[in-house]
């Protein structure tokens, strides 16, 4: 019996990860054809603002689809919330003599029993799980497989070695103008032409209220309070130490602008911006967000040199920092959301002796890194040595 694959999702936007995963499944499961099905309204995901319409998502998917793939508008025609059981039953009626395989990722597979009518799905289709093989992932998958098989499910595991990028991350990379390597060219062109995802907007020199909105939309929800409080604290410290308040506020808002990106995406960003990396950053790509953040502040947001420089040194510090650089480093460390032993001392010093506050921050960081057996950045070591030489 020939197999037909079903691959549904919001595809907002469809990207290279989707298409490579799909091609991989076609080969691994010997699918005769694969139906790509954009959802109308997903029960699993909320669609962010500035997103294309469902029809436009389908159009992008058509541009992206490879050989043996076909875009089905079954969920768009049905309208409303797209429940997979309805889709699977409709397709099963269309192909009564084929085996259907519903392709899903690990997260969706693990939460499968919380979907609407899972038993009705399993009656009509096998599950094809695209998994990456991260540490600990396979055990969870095997366990879920057993659970579902006990309920009569048929489950195929398909190892999908493709570097993963989520659509959420991709939308960030689009704003940073670094998404090309993750998108089929035709989809990238279409997105640019239509100006989806806020890509056509000019982000340079935004008024601070607007900058706040954009920054909030680009960081993870859990980081929003941090950047807003960092903005306020930095502005307060600027007032205290005679630095430019607006610069301090802007640097506070933008300092973690790329922090949501994982290590490989940090490296992509540095590469695309033509940045040569030192060995420390090559080995510790997670520390790169200060550098990539400063590049984005410069190239995308058109911030002035002072703001860019402050963001650049906010994680590691450096020798001979200027007042704004010190302020951002310290504000990031002690803004009201921070809670660790010694933070009160740091808060007090921040308003009485900025250099001592900076030194204390650096010392605490280096101590923690040593305890955790992690490498210390040369810049932090130089920053501390400089302060010691200056008699702080
Ligand atoms: Fe940071
Ligand atoms: Fe931060």
Write a concise keyword list for the protein shown above:
elongated, alpha/beta, six-stranded parallel beta sheet, Hypothetical protein af1432, 392 residues, binds fe (iii) ion, 6 strands, Rossmann fold
User: Helix content range of the residues, please?
Assistant: 40-55%
Question: Order of helices and strands, N to C?
Answer: EHEHEHHEHHEHEHHHHHHHHHHHHH
Number-wise, the strands total: 6
- Which CATH class of the largest domain is shown? Mainly Alpha
Report mean pLDDT, rounded to a whole number: 94
* Assigned CATH architecture of the largest domain: Orthogonal Bundle
**Portion in strands:** 5-15%
Stretches where pLDDT falls below 50 for ≥5 residues?
none
Cofactors, ions, other ligands: fe (iii) ion
Shape estimate: elongated
Largest sheet at a glance?
Answer: 6 strands, parallel
| Structural class estimated from helices and strands | alpha/beta
Q: In angstroms, what is the radius of gyration?
A: 25 Å
How would you write the strand order of the largest sheet? 3-2-1-4-5-6
How many DSSP helices? 20
The CATH superfamily of the largest domain is identified as: Hypothetical protein af1432
Q: Please name the CATH topology of the largest domain.
A: Hypothetical protein af1432
């Amino acid at each position: 019996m020939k197999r037909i694959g079903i691959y549904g999702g919001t595809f907002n936007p469809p990207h290279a990860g989707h298409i490579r995963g799909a091609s991989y499944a076609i080969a691994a499961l010997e699918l005769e054809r694969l139906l790509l099905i954009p959802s109308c309204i997903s029960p699993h995901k909320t669609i962010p603002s500035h997103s294309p319409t469902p029809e436009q998502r389908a159009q992008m998917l058509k541009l992206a689809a490879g050989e043996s793939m076909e875009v089905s508008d079954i969920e768009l025609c049905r309208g409303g919330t797209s429940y997979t059981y309805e889709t699977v039953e409709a397709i099963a009626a269309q192909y009564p003599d084929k085996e259907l395989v519903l392709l899903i990722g690990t997260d969706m597979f693990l939460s499968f029993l919380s979907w609407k009518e899972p038993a009705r799905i399993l009656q009509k289709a096998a599950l094809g799980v695209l998994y990456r093989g991260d540490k600990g992932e396979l055990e969870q998958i095997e366990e879920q497989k057993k659970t579902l098989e006990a309920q009569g499910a048929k489950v195929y595991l398909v190892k999908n070695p493709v570097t993963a990028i989520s659509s959420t991350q991709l939308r960030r990379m689009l704003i940073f103008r670094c998404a090309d390597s993750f998108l089929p060219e035709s989809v990238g062109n279409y997105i640019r032409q239509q100006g989806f995802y806020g890509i056509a907007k000019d982000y340079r020199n935004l008024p601070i209220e607007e900058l706040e909105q954009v920054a909030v939309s680009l960081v993870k929800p859990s980081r929003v309070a941090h950047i807003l409080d960092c903005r306020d604290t930095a502005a307060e410290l600027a007032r205290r130490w005679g630095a430019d308040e607006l610069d301090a506020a802007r640097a506070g808002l933008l300092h973690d602008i790329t922090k949501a990106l994982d290590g490989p995406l940090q490296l992509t960003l540095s590469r695309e911006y033509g940045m040569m990396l030192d060995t420390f950053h090559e080995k510790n790509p997670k520390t790169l967000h200060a550098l990539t953040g400063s590049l984005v502040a410069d190239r995308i947001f058109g911030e002035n040199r002072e703001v860019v420089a402050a963001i650049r040194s906010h994680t590691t510090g450096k020798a001979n920092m200027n007042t704004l650089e010190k302020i951002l480093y310290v504000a990031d460390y002690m803004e009201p959301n921070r809670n660790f032993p010694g933070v009160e001392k740091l808060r007090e010093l921040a308003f009485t002796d900025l250099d001592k506050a900076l030194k204390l921050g650096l010392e605490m960081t280096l101590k923690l890194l040593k305890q955790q057996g992690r490498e210390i950045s040369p810049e932090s070591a130089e920053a501390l040595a400089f302060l010691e030489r200056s008699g702080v």
